[in-house]
Structures are given as structure tokens and as C-alpha cells.
Design a protein that fits this description.
With 129 residues, the chain is an alpha+beta fold. It has helices at residues 57-63, 100-113, and strands at residues 4-14, 26-32, 40-45, 51-56, 68-70, 73-78, 82-89, 92-99, 126-128. It has a nine-stranded antiparallel β-sheet. A hairpin with a 2-residue loop joins strand 5 and strand 6.
Length: 129
């Protein structure tokens, strides 16, 4: 099993740590490490202090088809070609808009690299690092 790391361009809709004049897409790191946790994916947002969120791989997959949430994380499709991931914390809310195909490509790569679909059943935790 191998680590999957993919860079994606995303729009930060709201985030106090991103400069207000930042209108272009920013680089976001998507990471899956089946050795650490075969049921989870990580998303690292840019900023003065990088924010990294860990949550269920199945939540990401479900959220590409219909609104889904678990704890501090919400994922939903936005039109035909975009998806939104919303991260809640004591510091506020970060809303990140991705192209759906980038997230689907990442998920496909995770299935090839690690635990099969369904191995993460029952996982609903979200953690912020």
C-alpha cells in the first residue's frame, strides 16, 4: 500500500487565514495514507498557519453525490462540476470549493492504493490538526 498525495486547485470561499484579496484558486493538498489510517483522508488548506483536516474517506465519496456531514465536516455537490467541503472549528468556518473531478480522481487513486471500498464503514470522526 502506498501514500497518495494530490494537489488540487480550490477556491476558499471563507477563511480568515487567507488574504482577502486572494481571488484565484489556491493549492490544496489531498492526502491518503493507508498505513496510518486506511479509512481516512486529509485535506491541508493554505494559510499563515496551514490547516489540516482528517475525515472519513466515505464521507468525501458520499458528499460528491448528495449532501453529507459528520461532526465538523460537511460535503455536498455544487452543480454538475463542483463540490463544496465545509470545515467548522472554534475559529470559524472554512468553505472550500473544488472541481468534482479532482476529488473523484483522488478517491480513485486511494482505492487503488489502499483499503477497499466498505472497509471504512462506521467511521464518522473528523479531526483537525
Amino acid at each position: 500500500m502506498s501514500v497518495v498525495e494530490q494537489y488540487a486547485r480550490a477556491h476558499i470561499v471563507t477563511d480568515a487565514d487567507i488574504l482577502a484579496e486572494e481571488q484565484d484558486a489556491v493549492p490544496v493538498v489531498l492526502r491518503y495514507d493507508p498505513e496510518v489510517d486506511p479509512r481516512s483522508v486529509r485535506v491541508r488548506l493554505p494559510g499563515r498557519e496551514a490547516h489540516e483536516w482528517t475525515f472519513s474517506r466515505s464521507l468525501l465519496e458520499q458528499g460528491l453525490r448528495a449532501p453529507a456531514e459528520s461532526g465538523e465536516i460537511r460535503v455536498w455537490p455544487c452543480g454538475r462540476v463542483q463540490a463544496v467541503v465545509e470545515f467548522h472549528s472554534a475559529h470559524g468556518v472554512s468553505v472550500v470549493q473544488f472541481e468534482s473531478k479532482a476529488l473523484m480522481r483522488f478517491l480513485r487513486r486511494t482505492y487503488l492504493a489502499g483499503a477497499p471500498v466498505g472497509a471504512e464503514a462506521g467511521v464518522g470522526r473528523a479531526a483537525r490538526r
